[in-house]
Amino acid sequence: MISNEDIIKDLEKSLTDFSYDSKAKNVGYVEKNGDGVVLSSGLSQALVGEQVVFADGTHGMVLGLDEDNVSIVLFGSGENIREGDKVQTTGKILSITASEKLIGRVISPLGNPLDGKTQVKTGRNMPLEKIAPGVIDREPVSTPLKTGIKIIDAIVPIGRGQRELIIGDRGLGKTAIVIDTIINQKPRKNSKSKPVICIYVAIGQKQSTVAQVIAKLKDTEAMDYTIVVCAGASDPVALQYLAPYAGVAIAEYFLEKGEDVLIVYDDLSKHAWAYRQISLVLRRPAGREAYPGDIFYLHSRLLERAVKLNKKNGGGSITALPIVETQASDISAYIPTNIISITDGQIYLQSDLFNTGIRPAINAGSSVSRVGGAAQTSAIKSVSGKMRLDLAQYRELAVFAQFGSELDQATLAQLERGQRITEILKQPQYDPLPESLQILSIWTVTTGQLNDIPIEKLGKFEHEFHKFIQRQYPEIIKLLETGEKIKEDTIKILEKVVTEFKKMFS
Amino acid sequence: MSLKKIKKLALKTYSDNTLNKKVLDLVSKKLSRKDLKVYINELKRINGHRIVKVYVPDRRILTDKIERSLSKFFENKELQIIEEPELIAGLRIIDNDLIYELNLRDSFDNMIEYLKETYD
Predict the structure, then answer these.
(1) What ipTM was reported for this prediction?
(2) Among B97, B111, B112, B118, which would you mutate to test the A interface (most chain A Cβ atoms within 10 Å of its Cβ)?
(3) CATH 3.40.50 fits B51-118, yes or no
(4) Per-residue pLDDT reduced to its tens digit, A405-419
């Protein structure tokens, strides 16, 4: 049992930072309360972004200053706030307490626990709004962030510090891609690369969907290095608006410690909807699709906080994977085009591909990575370059092949190769592959080693070949793990190994 | 009537820091019910700017010297002294929408709040 003396000592320790200085508080009175926004008189000293507290304990944030009144967005339901109630400033700009203790936790954008555990109160206060690091503090993206998904790591590689948009209609596997990426960040034995801390920000999603994601992360032990920030569909709109900023504020805590962080915003379309709702209630002028004029800045200032810092500043990084949901594959809508222009590339998921059984349903032609190529290892670069070309040629030829005219042998071979590449790039959900195995799969298909294997058996062949090589030739795996360009000697060994396996494969 | 005009009327109702009853009667008769509500609110706001409330635990601690210096500090404002034993020691001054907490009670409350926020 704790003695009284210990409690007093502990309290004294906690109060060491307490300031006894007299404080001037600024108060106001509620004039109007509706739709999650309160109009208040007074509060002449309030600042934009300052946290305020109402008489019933509900917190809010100042979002607009007018001549006579102040607009406050509520973090609670606000059903007990009535006209004439007192509201006072706290002198605090909105911030979240960040520390290592948050890892493995599910929290709200205000730092309140959502997993039934105790609140993390000790740590550093990180401001939700912060200007992104400038050009002097940054360095180009150079380290890969491996997703474990063959088509992404080979064709649209992502680097640490990059912002890569994942875009597509609902139900095509956008969240599945980011979950696989998070699972793939699990620290591996003898791995040279720095571990990655993952932050999953759920914005305006169904609680059941978030629960499924958390359960999957727990099953795969990914929660050991993941933080979930959740503002669900039933949460106040102000929390949905703040969620991504809370996530990136936590990411910045780890960034300042020189760590690499991966942050997922699932999704920014709902974030834009939340901000549109707040803006319309605040009577701000509406623009295209009724979004306010600063909707671009809303997302650009958020995504600019994704960064690769130079060594002088700790060398940490924040990689951002924002998700945007399109309606009827319309990527030319307002929010998708905005975010496409802000990010360093996009992974485009297409319903046609999904319906033909290609999973992940990534359209390799429309997906790009503007900076990720520099972060790719020489090994995967050397094998995937040819594949990208083969795939592009296949897509072009496939269109003409539909006319049913007679085709020459070379064209037929190219079509055949394309089909095999498409087949080998298929990957089941929650099964990310290490880079060495990805290289093996891509090498076998691009060098024509799989030409004599029936397409329908390619999946089985790949799976068993991986097992075979891991069991019989672990030295090849080790060699490929170094990331160095594959040498002639290695290619010869690989050819022998494939021939040996083919004899066994039935 | 526009808000700007009502504000102007409310300002005119106060002459030399006192409420001009003649103007008040005249204006209040001519305004509609809706505008009258805005006008009264504006008068309240102006009045709030004029008055400074000083809360003390015991009236006797407020010496002439302290009162003089307070009057000097809040020039052109009317001081209202209110007794509130709950404060224990010190003062609480309310100047329109600003509250200066210079007393033991508020310090304790702030300390409790701080502990709630930081104590694990």
Answers:
(1) 0.81
(2) B97
(3) no
(4) 778 888 888 899 899
